[in-house]
């Protein structure tokens, strides 16, 4: 006995319920034409994941329910096909449900199995993540109280949902349900022969390997094969990377779908004729690389593809046709330019060089060379006269005071005004070019180089930016134009070029040291004493901690950017602006 399954690893748009429905109908039609018996959509596909406070709007939940009904009615056109669709389901205020307080979340995070104009089953998510970027307890009710440490023989099968498709019993789970043992064990106790896990799991570097490791534990604990059906696409700060996969009952990897792209991915589940209880994925005898050994899952390709996908989706999903950015001749703007071209194509990207009295000739030369290689629209607009005019206008006010960072910031703000004017006039989205190290230290100018709608490098440390640029230049034309970044841009000392002879290291620790301290503070929550004990100079640790603390007000006004690491500034970092703590 076989069950033909199609994993719809697709890219929804949050809030575009009609558009997501149309995409689902097209995928179901294709699955039916390929004679699949089950098509599996990701978690909350119908509304898009991270719809946030849209869930508090009754009209939004009503529109999702209407779209689900439309899909149910459309299913009559596909005899023999079952559709597993992720969607929100409004909570009935009168219905009992486990809760810790009097607050009633508006919805369930649900999946429904649909066939021939009927809903055959609906499963509601049990384990609700409420950490990092997740706020699911704000929006969703849990279908059961999770009981940690409960023995397998005492798991209540009533908490599970197991469906029968063509004689194969599938246990349904939603994302976080598979990161703890109990839901999978409940499905096993309820008679499941295999597990189907639908997901919307935000990307961080190494996450595909981590998922495979965790899900392998679930397969081994239950003795059941499973499929991990994942979403793809960018949504504000989040990136969903795809990499859907199938595991045998022993946790062995059968196959993994491509990352960072949409695909209708076919699989076949076989029931062993000798034992109706045993299922396995077809073609398991073929040698498949384990995901943590797969070269395509190494860090730099993951990071680059995530940045490209995040930038493309942020631009297109928000209705922009093209982008622009200020090109400085430095590493960060060069990286953003390369990302933008790989994401959108050279014809959708405009680079603007705005030299000041302190701009080095090699910055102009390298910028011209890079735009020549990439073939983007390029303009040079001198800010020299504008800068002198500003200083003249302020001369009476500044009389008797030496030039300082005020004049440096004036240059950045003039550039920001000009870039925003070009954005307004021509309708392109302005990309910011600041990296994570600069964002952390406030090494940027509010209303200057912080101007813009999206920051691709917001979660890329400066030390990693060098490595990322070298990697992109080393991979030929596999991701777009070969060798897009002139070597001198990578090797010359970084400088804001806002005063004569300036370099970044005049005022900041060496980037390797800075980034190491930031990782300990941001990602591991280490105290000052712990970081000093790790061998870093006290004065540098104090400098980094102080700058990180006092620049929170800037970060609150910064453009969003894609999450790549364990902790990104934004939804993942929630510190008070007014903060007297020094530990």
Automatic annotation (TrEMBL):
SUPFAM superfamilies listed in its UniProt record: Adenine nucleotide alpha hydrolases-like, Carbon-nitrogen hydrolase
One GO CC term on file: cytoplasm
Q: What is its EC number?
A: 6.3.5.1
UniProt-annotated catalytic positions: 43, 125, 175
**InterPro entries membership:** C-N_Hydrolase, C-N_Hydrolase_sf, Gln-dep_NAD_synthase, NAD/GMP_synthase, NAD_synthase, Rossmann-like_a/b/a_fold
- One Pfam entry name: CN_hydrolase
Its GO biological process annotations read: NAD+ biosynthetic process
Please list the reactions this protein catalyses: deamido-NAD(+) + L-glutamine + ATP + H2O = L-glutamate + AMP + diphosphate + NAD(+) + H(+)
Return the broad EC class: ligase
HAMAP family assigned to the protein according to its UniProt record, in alphabetical order: NadE_glutamine_dep (MF_02090)
Q: Which NCBIfam families match?
A: nadE, PRK13981.1
Q: What does this protein do?
A: Catalyzes the ATP-dependent amidation of deamido-NAD to form NAD. Uses L-glutamine as a nitrogen source.
**Which family would the database say this protein is a member of?**
In the C-terminal section; belongs to the NAD synthetase family.
- Tell me the PANTHER family matching this sequence: GLUTAMINE-DEPENDENT NAD(+) SYNTHETASE, NH 3 /GLUTAMINE-DEPENDENT NAD + SYNTHETASE
Name of the protein this chain belongs to: Glutamine-dependent NAD(+) synthetase
Q: Which organism is it from?
A: Lampropedia puyangensis
The organism's lineage is:
Bacteria, Pseudomonadati, Pseudomonadota, Betaproteobacteria, Burkholderiales
Q: Which gene encodes it?
A: nadE
